[in-house]
Amino acid sequence: MQTTTAYRTWNLIIPVYLEGAWQMNLTCTVQAFHDQGIITAAIIDGEEATADRAAHLLGWARAEGTLDLLDTSEDTRPATLTRRAASALHADLGRLGYTHDAHYEIASAATGRDLASLTELTDEEATTVWAHACLVRGYSTPVTRYYGRAVAA
Q1: Which of 4, 62, 64, 99 is the 20 to 30 Å CA partner of 29?
Q2: In this structure, how many other beta carbons lie within 10 angstroms of the beta carbon of residue 96?
Q3: Is 7 in the same domain as 72?
Q4: Is residue 146 part of a domain?
Q5: Which pTM does this prediction carry?
Q6: Confidence bin at 147 (pLDDT 50/70/90)
Q7: What is the pLDDT of residues 28-75, one digit of tens each?
Q8: Shortest CA distance to 67 belongs to which of 55, 85, 79?
Q9: Pairing of strands 21-35, 38-44
Q10: Which helix (H) or strand (E) segment is 58 a member of?
C-alpha cells in the first residue's frame, strides 16, 4: 500500500483592514502537505506551522486576497503501520519478553534509525523488526505472531 502526499506552495497577498481603513497587505508563502486531500502539515515563510494555521490563511486569501499557486509536486511513500498494527506489534514483542522501552530499541536496531513510535514503521520494516526480535531471543526463524499477521520464515 502506498500513501500519496501532495506538496503545494502558494504565494498569498491578503489586505488587512484595521481601524476602519486598509492598513497593509499581509504577504506570505504557504507550503501545505496534503494526504488524500487533507492538510497534514505546513510551512509558512520557511517556518513549520500547524495545518489549521495554513488552512486559515489559505481560506482568508481565497475570500479576501489573492492566492497564486507557485509549485505542486507529489511524493509517494510506503504507508506506515496503523495504531492498531503498531499495538499488535507491541503486544507480540511483549510476548517474546521485551519490555515496552526495549520495543523501540529493538526496532531501532533492526531498521538502523531512531523511532519515536512503531507507527513510523512500514509493513516491510515491521516484518524485519519481528524477525530481528526473534533472532535476538534465540529463534533461528521468526515465530508466528499471535496478535499480528503470521510472518513467513
Answers
A1: 4
A2: 17
A3: yes
A4: no
A5: 0.51
A6: low
A7: 888 888 776 678 888 888 888 898 998 888 888 888 888 888 887 765
A8: 55
A9: antiparallel
A10: helix 51-64
